[in-house]
Amino acid sequence: MLLEVKNLSTEFKLKRGVVKAVDDISFSIDKGEILAIVGESGSGKSVASLSIMGLLQKPGRISGGEILFKSQDLTKLSRKQLQKIRGNQISMIFQEPMTSLNPVWRIKDQIMESIRTHMQVSQKEALARTIEMLDTVGIPSAAQRANDYPHQMSGGMRQRVMTAMALACEPELLIADEPTTALDVTIQAQILELLYRMREKFRMAVLLITHDLGVVSEAADRVIVMYCGKIMEEADVRTLFTRPLHPYTVGLLQSIPQIDEDSDKRLYMIKGMVPNPLNMPPGCPFSDRCDHSMARCTKEMPQLREISGHKVRCFLYDEAKEGELGAK
Amino acid sequence: MLKYIIKRILMLIPVLIGVSIIVFLIMRVFSPDPAPIVLGQHATQEAQEAWRQAIGLNDPIYLQYWHYLKGALTGDLGTSYYTKIPVVKEIMARFPATIELAVVAIILASLFGILIGVVSAVKKNSIFDNAGMLLALIGVSMPIFWLGILLIILFSGTLHWLPSNGRIDPLLQPAHVTGFYLIDSLIAGDSGDFVDALRHLVLPAAALAMYSMAIITRMTRSSMLDTLGQDFIRTARAKGIAEGRVIFRHALRNGLIPIVTVIGLQLGSLLGGAVLTETVFSWPGIGAYTVTCILKSDFPVVQGVVLLVAAIFVLMNLIVDVIYAFLDPRIKYAKKEV
Lengths: 328, 338
Hints:
Chain A has about 325 residues and is α/β, with parallel strands linked by helices.
């Protein structure tokens, strides 16, 4: 296993109370695998990725669990030790390409900074590598564009630059936090294509954070569905799309518009709202929005149960045995 | 860029004409008649009248201004009513002292202001942040003459560490090349003069720097808090670069624009003469001198100084604007001009 997250919890201490943004999640990523974490805003998916990078800002902090990267617990490392891993073995690209690059430095300076931080190379070699990376991610006339400032590039170009920067040191794990959310649909497809190609080229693992199930179906090998800081369901991508178990996942899938469907049929909508993170119900966090809610759901938290590789947190499948699983 | 700079410098002309008209009018309308002050209380009415006639004060005001403007265009700003020395010479005799004080003060203020501001922003809400902000609050609210007096009492009076007035020991005669004693003594290779000039400079510069430092500190802190929250800072951290580099190379570099602006404005106002500081420390600069000239109705000198100060302000703003373009590649001036 490249990365193993065990019982990770992250909390934000606010004046009005403590928010558990990530609540006891465990997952792992193998070499070369693309794992997607899906969830709506506030589900804790971004916080989970920032926790792995050690980039949580106050008042957020990791309150429990382990993050084992190649069997080394990242939560126990000093800031200096983490800096050696960040941008080198694990790197990250962000949601906002328009603001994620420093506006006052040339593209090449920003990528070279990354290279020269982690690799013992000369200025010249770093520049050559920068141009090579820009070329790899599909920036036309890379040698000239390297001299551009971020404001001279489009959003899609900037996301390519971000990707080139993240991949410059050939990381083993790339965390992509909503890499396509801020982009046009056509550019989205290009960036996903790029990630896919880079995965093949550098044989790295990708942790893809997104709320877009379309993106998941195109890119991921395995999927985790998060809701209110908890993992609700985990399965490989085919299984999840063909045989979703959790009512939340089912709801998410049903709310994707289908082009061949009756046009006068209204799109399915999950009723209600995400509960206030400061005031979580004691039972299943999805219980008050769930069509299958039972009396037990509002009082007890269901456990994440694994049945032949497919994990789900729901009482509907409490008594289910192997072979009996099916969408209800 | 060059075009832009030239255009801005040309704009100095209408500004200076406007300023000169205003100060010309104000002096003649609101200031007491200079004749009895110049000639003394006991001068006869006839003598006063003759003096006014000779100096041109009886001419219609537009004619007076016309003569003044003609002179100004050839670099002649008139002569002081009292010393009979050309205004330009009077100003040049005192301006280096003011520049020396202002420059040293602004360097001190920027150095400490930016440092305290950055640390306060990085360690937001820590004890250091609170202490820094308290210091800044004291700096902006404490009257400068009061701070000056306190400094004199402590460092000159009680501790006898530093001299309390003047630019240099009157017994020392520094070579006069630039008028800046620090530079002159260095050129002459006289370390004794240099140290003495420096010792005289410490207290007034510190007093003068305090206010500017407070303003720069507050601006730096708020600008840094703003940039530290930006996405590209997270990117920089994600690259694994050292935190110091993140703070200075990425955050401070982006937050410099408002900081440079206040530094420029502060320097502009310091160069206009720090009246109170110069008075408290008997610093022979332009500020205290101008106030005396205003009280004595020495019109040509006051007009000359005001023009100088206006020009300095315009030029400081231009310099700040030019620095912007270097700090931020998104700022371009040249292309819009036709």
